[in-house]
Design goal:
Blueprint: E1 6-9, E2 17-21, H1 54-65, E3 69-72, E4 94-95, E5 98-99, H2 108-130, E6 137-144, E7 158-161, H3 168-178, E8 185-187, H4 199-203, E9 210-217, H5 224-245
Helix pairs in contact: 1-5, 3-5
C-alpha cells in the first residue's frame, strides 16, 4: 500500500504559527527500487538522506506553540521538497561525495512521477495549511551537518535564513537569539538566503507571509532529550519576538 507523502500533526491547532519539516524522513517508498536507493544503510542515517533531529524538535515546538506541523514522509534523496520543480538539484545524483545509485540514470518520466506522487501533494497540503489564516507565520525547521566532507567545521549552533522579500520576523529573531549570550548564531548561515522555488519562496514570499527558516546543527538535536530542550528554549523566544516586534 502506498503511504501518504506527508503527515500533519495537530491540524486542529489554532495559533498563527505553522511549522514545516521539509526533510523530516529518510523513508524511501517501496515503489522506488523496492524501497532502496542502493545506498549503504549507514548512508541513509546521514544528513544526506534527511534532517537529523528536525522532526522531533518540531513536534514538541508545535505542541508548545499550539501550531500544526507538516512533515514530509519521503527522503530528500527521493525528491527534495525544498527545491523548485525546475531546480537541477531536485533529484540528487551525488550528495556530499556520495553517489545515489537509484538516481544515477533517472529519466524525466520518473522525475515527473515522483513530483506527482510525493512533491506536489506535500506542497498542496502545506499551502492549504498556510492559507487557513491570513496572519500565519511560517517556521521552516531544518538541521545541518557539523562538517561537510573536505570543509571546515561549522561553528553555529543555530542559523536563521532570511531574504528581503519578507525578512522582518527573521531579522528580529536573529537579534533576540544573539542576546542569549551562549550561542553562535548564523545570519544566513550555514547557507545564504533562499533559492527560487524553495518551500519558503513558494509558501511565504509570494503571499508576503511572515517567516523564518531555522537551521539547527544536528549534533545539537541528535537525541530526544536535546530535541525537547531546543524546542522548549525556542518556543518562548519565538513568542517574545512576535510580541515585542508587533508583527
Amino acid at each position: 500500500m502506498t503511504q501518504q507523502p506527508f503527515h500533519i500533526h495537530g491540524a486542529e491547532r489554532k495559533s498563527r504559527w505553522l511549522i514545516t519539516v521539509d526533510h523530516a524522513s529518510n523513508r524511501v517508498p517501496a515503489e522506488i527500487n523496492g524501497g532502496d536507493l542502493g545506498l549503504d544503510p549507514a548512508d541513509m542515517e546521514r544528513h544526506i538522506a534527511y534532517d537529523i533531529g528536525a522532526l522531533g524538535c518540531s513536534l514538541r515546538l508545535g505542541e508548545l506553540l499550539d501550531a500544526p506541523v507538516i512533515a514530509s514522509n519521503f527522503s530528500r534523496l527521493v525528491i527534495d521538497p525544498n527545491r523548485g520543480e525546475d531546480d537541477p538539484t531536485l533529484v540528487m545524483h551525488l550528495y556530499d561525495g556520495t553517489i545515489i545509485p537509484a538516481n544515477r540514470h533517472i529519466d524525466e518520466t520518473e522525475i515527473e512521477r515522483r513530483k506527482t506522487a510525493y512533491y506536489r501533494p506535500y506542497h498542496a497540503a502545506l499551502e492549504n495549511l498556510a492559507a487557513s489564516r491570513v496572519d500565519v507565520i511560517l517556521v521552516a525547521m531544518h538541521s545541518f551537518s557539523p562538517k561537510l566532507n573536505g570543509r571546515s567545521p561549522r561553528p553555529w549552533e543555530i542559523g536563521v535564513l532570511h531574504a528581503p522579500q519578507e525578512d522582518r520576523f527573521g531579522l528580529a529573531l536573529i537579534d533576540r537569539l544573539e542576546q542569549e549570550g551562549d550561542l553562535t548564531v548564523g545570519d544566513n548561515e550555514p547557507y545564504a538566503g533562499h533559492l527560487p522555488g524553495d518551500s519558503v519562496d513558494q509558501h511565504a514570499f509570494h503571499d508576503e507571509r511572515l517567516n523564518a527558516l531555522i537551521e539547527l546543527r544536528h549534533d545539537e538535536i541528535d537525541t530526544e532529550t536535546k530535541q525537547l530542550a531546543w524546542a522548549e528554549r525556542l518556543a518562548p523566544i519565538f513568542t517574545e519576538v512576535l510580541k515585542s516586534s508587533g508583527l
